Amino acid sequence: MAELWINTIFRCILSVVLCTAQDIHQLTVTAGDNVTLFCKSTTDYPTWTGPELRNGYVQQYNNHGQSSFPNPNVLEQKRLRLGWASDKSSLIIHDVILSDQGLYQCSTVAKVNISVRVPPRSPMISNTEISAEDTLIIRKSESQVTSLVCISSGGYPQPLVQWYRGTTGTQPLTSTSAVSTEDNSYNVTQTYTFSPQRQDDGVLYVCQSSFQTAPRHITTTSVKLFLYLKPNPPTAVQTLLVSAGHQVTIRCTTAGSRPAASIIWSYRNTEHTGEQTSTLDDITKTYTVASLLKLQVSAEDNGQNVQCKVTHDLLITPAQLTASISLNVAYPPIVSVSATNTTVKEPNAILSCIAKGNPDGSYSYGKWIQRWPGYNVPVLERPGSETLELTALTYEHSGFYTCTASNGIKIFGTNTEFVEGAAVQLLVKSYPIIVRLDAKIASKLNKNKTVEVEYFSNIAGSDVKLYKIVNGEMKAVTLFSVTKKLVEIEVPVFSHLIKTDGTGADFTVQIKSEEDYGFYYVVVSNIIGSSNKSFEIIPTKPPVSPSDFTIDYVQHNKARLSWRRGYNGGLIQTFVIQLGTDEKWSDVEVFDRNTEDKDRISTILTDLFDSTTYFVRLYAYNEEGNSPLSETLNFTTSPIKVKTTVETNNTAMIIIGTVLGLIIVALVVFLIYMIVQRRRELIRNKDVSRNTSSRRYVNVDGSKTLQTKGVKLKNASHDVQTSESQYTELDKDLKEAESAYDAISTM
Fold it and tell me: Which of 12, 265, 280, 691 could make a disulfide contact with 272, Cβ separation 3.0–4.6 Å?
């Protein structure tokens, strides 16, 4: 070894080489570059040795003073890459490779330690794809923990790998590294973990690999973050105000989703599917989703909540986004009446018309209507107002009240705006009202007389008392018996007569002496008060003569008569029509049931002879006797008209026809003469006594045709109703009896 140093020094001296002892120079070289190892030598082509070893010795590339590199112990690929600089002292290594690193020495004095730096391949980002715009993208989901993974491989020494958001000029993101080596190279995996939010969508993320000492070897790979985005909170609106009975449309909208969200509806615990559309925004590349729900609505739907539910794969907590809207449905008012029962003692009663609709608050009022229970026709109408005040209260104000109101919304399917509400019943508690009591009641002496009174009381519990007027004072009468029963009565309600349930009271009055005749008062009372009405008990007597006796019309074989009743004397009366010619009379009797009816009675006499003069008069009778006769009227029946028409063009036929006609006329005249003579003979032989068996009877309420010796009588229609009663039985008895009085006496 000493010999080697001696030889070297000697060579330097001999070759006049200026060699200066130097420290080892550190030189970093990038693989693939050319590097020059400088050496100052006084001679050309000094000896260079490299890091290659053989048997523990360094290898000399050339012999001193020689420009070639003949050493076979150096790999040929290395020898081919060696060369000399222009100063013929410095060594050039072309296309440096990693195995070139190590200690190089020029003539054992100049030392250069080469470190070879191998740039890694461009960073690779995992799970990326090429977009339509030919850019690198990575798909992730909003708010879900995700990792961006970048791999830098093949570098030497270990490169620095970092993530940046947007550009590399910003602060690097906090990430983690994983390093592995292979074939003298480093593989670095750099991971950035985060939960991307909506604002991260479309942001460029950059992975950078670099050597801190060599900025020119920085390499980057960028990727754009493409997020699957959750939908934004939805909004729900009702498009238009609709009326009950129509269809309402509700719109629910949500924006910002990727991919498109879905919308369902919930109403009254039932899910509905609307008409859904999705629109892609060209700028944000997100979807706006809209859904229309259409519902047929009624007044009951007003104010009800409809819920819009948005679902999406990225929605976890909560699993869906919701929006609610309260339906606004216009509908006519629901109308009702508020009333409080009262009594006739109060000064007034106030009823309120309550309307509740949509819109609410501004109402027009139509009219108030009062109806009596069971009577469909209005008994009272008043102009519309929010309140109705009733004054001077009577039982007539009781009943069902309705009012009408409008808020401008028509009833569906009609042009009606004013709505009549449900009726409310108002009870005006009143004292009883006497509706029927005969003003005169006839009774026989030493008999018991039953008096009938009918009255109306709209509250339960009533009492009936009887008073007699004695010397101008009312004295209580002890009633022999009182019987009450439910009857149908007619009650006056304003301008109406209404059939309703009432009370009938029958009480018996004893007529023991003349002093028991006279005026009485019936007093009917309840807890509210009482009412009274007077009547007179009079002795029974014959009826009053009929009045206003007239002949209404006359034809060739019939005539119509009519008259008005007179007072019946307190008993059932019968009318007798006397018909005669030449003052010879025959009787026709007509029963009268309606003892105090003021309507006219009419009847028709039939089977009369034509061209005949008749006399008629009228009287009435009851079991107490006969009335005076009415005035006597007369009428003449019209003749029968005979019309003969002979048409011929032949004179002989006219003559023959005339002769035959004269013969026929003569025969007819002769027959008429014989009939008239026979008729007159029959009339002259008739007994005109009122008790004769020639009388025939007809009930004025019937429609029977009655014939008396060739004369028929028909009853015309009038206001009396026909029914089977005691009078019908009386009619039958009279027909079978020898006389009217015999028939009555047998009853």
Answer: 265
What is the C-alpha separation between 723 and 716, in angstroms, rounded?
16
The CATH classification of domain 124-228, taken from the options 1.10.760.10, 2.60.40.10, 3.20.20.70, 3.40.50.1820: 2.60.40.10
Q: What is the pLDDT of residue 733?
A: 39
3-state secondary structure (DSSP) of residue 387: strand
User: What does the pLDDT read at residue 108?
Assistant: 62
Q: Are 177 and 189 in contact (CB under 8 A)?
A: yes
Say whether 331-429 and 2-117 share the same fold.
Answer: yes
Counting as low any pLDDT under 70, the low residues of the chain are 1-22, 108, 480, 583, 593-596, 642-654, 679-747
DSSP 323-383: EEEE--EEEEEEEEEE---EETTSSEEEEEEEEEEES-S--EEEEEEEE-TT--SEEEEEE
From the list 197, 290, 304, 195, the residue with the least C-alpha distance to 248 is 304
**What is the pLDDT, as a whole number, of residue 624?**
86
The CATH number of 331-429 is: 2.60.40.10
Tokens found for residue 56: 């523990």
The SS3 of residue 652 is helix
Element (H, E) at 468: strand 463-470
DSSP letters spanning 683-709: HHTS---TTSTT-EEEETTS--EEEET
Helices (H), 510-587: none
pTM of this structure: 0.56
In this prediction, residue 1 carries a pLDDT of 34
Specify whether domain 547-642+682-745 bears CATH 2.60.40.10: yes
Question: What confidence score (pLDDT) does residue 375 get?
Answer: 86
Question: Which residues on adjacent β-strands are paired with residue 351?
Answer: 388
Q: Is 289 exposed, middle or buried (0-12, 13-18, 19+ CB in 10 A)?
A: buried
**Peptide linkage before 628 cis (omega within 30 of 0):** no
SS (HEC) of 611-645? CCEEEEEEEEEECCEECCCCCCEEEECCCCCCCCC
> What contacts 26, CB < 8 A, 6 or more positions away?
113, 115
Q: To 10 degrees, the CA torsion angle through 703, 708, 710, 715? A: -20
Contact at 8 Å (CB) between 276 and 260? no
- Residue 191 three-state SS: strand
Whole-angstrom distance, CA of residue 168 vs CA of residue 209 = 11
Residue 92 CB-half CA count within 13 A: 14
Angle in degrees, CA 192, 197, 200, rounded to 5: 70
What's the CATH code, domain 235-327?
2.60.40.10
pLDDT digits (tens, 9 = 90+) for 607-638: 899 999 999 999 999 888 999 999 999 999 99
Where exactly are the structural domains of the chain? 2-117, 124-228, 235-327, 331-429, 433-539, 547-642+682-745
Q: Residues 565-578: pLDDT tens digits?
A: 888 887 888 999 99
Q: What is the DSSP letter of 111?
A: E
Q: Tell me: the pLDDT tens digits for 286-338?
A: 999 999 999 999 999 999 999 999 999 989 888 999 999 999 999 999 999 99
pLDDT given at position 138: 93
b/e burial code for range 101-117 (CB count within 10 A of at least 16 → b)? beebbbbbbbbbebebb
Identify which of 43, 61, 72 has the alpha carbon closest to the alpha carbon of residue 105: 61
Class of domain 433-539: mainly beta
What does the pLDDT read at residue 480?
Answer: 64
Q: What is the CATH number of domain 2-117?
A: 2.60.40.10
Helix (H, G, I), strand (E, B) or coil at 151: strand
The pLDDT of residue 2: 39
pLDDT of residue 170: 86
Q: Are 635 and 743 in contact (CB under 8 A)?
A: no
